[in-house]
Amino acid sequence: MEEAKRLHARLLRRGDRRLQPLLLRVLAAGDLRYAALLLESFPSSPPSAPLHNRLLHALASARHQLLLPVFSRAHRLRLLAPLSFTLLFSASAAASSSSTRFAVCAHALLIRSGHFASGGDPFLASALVSFYAKNRLLAEARRVFDELPRRDAAVYNALLSAYARGGLIDAAEKLFEEMPEKNVVSWTAMVSGYAQNGRHEKAVETFLEMWEKGGVRPNELTVSSVLPACAAVGAMELGRKVERYARGKGLLKNLYVANALVEMYAKCGSIRGAWKVFQSIGQQRDLCSWNSMIMAFAVHGLWREALVLFHKLRGLNQMVLHCLESFWPVLMEAWWMKASCSSTR
Known about the structure:
Blueprint: H1 2-14, H2 20-29, H3 32-41, H4 49-61, H5 67-76, H6 82-92, H7 97-113, H8 122-134, H9 138-147, H10 153-165, H11 169-178, H12 184-196, H13 200-213, H14 220-233, H15 236-248, H16 255-267, H17 271-281, H18 287-299, H19 303-316, H20 324-343
Helix pairs in contact: 1-2, 2-4, 3-4, 4-5, 4-6, 6-7, 6-8, 8-9, 8-10, 9-10, 10-11, 10-12, 11-12, 12-13, 12-14, 13-14, 14-15, 14-16, 15-16, 16-17, 16-18, 17-18, 18-19, 18-20, 19-20
């Protein structure tokens, strides 16, 4: 960054107005605030839309607070392009309420600009549907979806995932059936939606249809979505089959998959299986991994093992002390149940 500032100083002394090499160097250094000030202080003639989009891309990727001001400046300078809107909608899909309101206004600007008249940019269409869907504005997401003359898999998946997450399973099923082409994202959205909304048997059924009939290979998210459903219906044999697949594909390196597998074995009554997976996680274990294994021991009456593991966790990191209040009553209940059973013999 110091080298970029020295270059800036040399350009100022020479009266050189070339901005692109300097801005690219500042962006590479990661100082987005300096880059924004640089672009504002070096107005080119005519203004450079590609440079503004470079900066917008960096700001959107970092969810930076300067994204909205820079977008506003690009609007004032009439530099907005389809890519500009795509970046804004993608960033606003998981941002604050203020940026959400701004993005709604940006949609109006997009319509007025004419960039969206044909709906020809699939990335922009997908970003806009995803923006409304992730902000739970499903009616608006559906309206945009219905107005598109062409819809690719990404647009379908954006709305499908929103329906599934929002518990609108009937709407998700209807949209899923209408899809001309289904991929692993589509199938995973349905499996996850069924599992999260308590329809575990349907989640397992859909997973098997995808895997055995549809010829679609599950990914990490698919596997971590179906394993809780396997646990809920007691389908441990399917869970084991999924584990073999996951091991073969190297998916157990994903902590979400490994944790879901620990929980599946624990809920299906295989403490040995849960313990084996828990040990294989090694140093990657997070609080969820420890929670699942401790709860597995406690629920199955192995209170000594639960307490040993609990105290081992407690000694690893002071940050886990906040789980004391939630764990201690469970462990004590397991201890009292064990003690009561022993006293009645």
